[in-house]
Amino acid sequence: MCGIAGIIYRDHGDGHRVGRDLTRMLQSMKHRGPDSTGYALYRAPTQELVLRVKLADGPVNGDLDFAADIRRRRREVEARVRAAGAQILNAEDINEYTLGATLAYEGDLKRLADHVEAVPHVEVLSLGHALEIIKDLGDAKTVAAGYHLDDYFGSHGIGHVRMATESDVDIANAHPYWAYPFSDVAVVHNGQLTNYHHWRRRLERAGHRFASECDSEIIAVYLAQKLESGMKLEDAMRLSLEELDGVFTYICVSEDALGMAKDELAAKPLVLYEGDDMVALASEEMAIRAVIDHEIETYDPYESEVMVWTR
Question: Which one of 2, 81, 94, 237 is the catalytic residue?
Fold first, then answer.
């Protein structure tokens, strides 16, 4: 059992406290997943690329050799970024095992991501002009405090609280997942894909890589492949309901849109609120009420339904 949430503000600004609002939504669903919490947050797109890299699956905890190893990985990441043809405009240690950087780069995203991930134990969490993925172990309050998300202002985002059932409790298996190697697309998911291995083999043969054993990553990379072929996001999501088997509900976000998809059984819950100022959706109504201070009406999308909202 996991919990998913999404919010998109209907004006064209990015001055909304999306980090704080998603934290409130996710914390209200802590009972659905205490193991890890993740966010995909969006600001107005820039010409520069925003890179987030995981250097390790957790803190140093006083291990001096491990600390030295992480510092070495950071230097190697920066060297490989430059070797791929990117200029590092700014680099910041988000914490002792997460690196954020702003890059000037006009080349192929897959080439850049693959260069970085050639460093052992390093994972590109996100790479895009508007997207930043933040995920870590613990509940939403813990993760938000560690990454200062109450101070994150943006336009829309999604989040996930995870209860580990089939894979390890670590950052690599936490959601959301970037739709590698397509810019600014991310996915959170509640459910299970029964044709996971079929699609993993198929996508790997097409040149895609996977950072985890989680079936939710399949959805993100599946959508990336469709988008790379020129398909629109909504069309790719509709096709996913035909080609991905299982019981699932997922939320997908892009630079300027948020969408949801439910499989034909619609067994995984999702509650939706559409207001004049925002659209909010979550596994439980209490998550929506955590960010709205007046009486609202919500409803559940139907089976085999895809809905997309744009800014």
Answer: 2
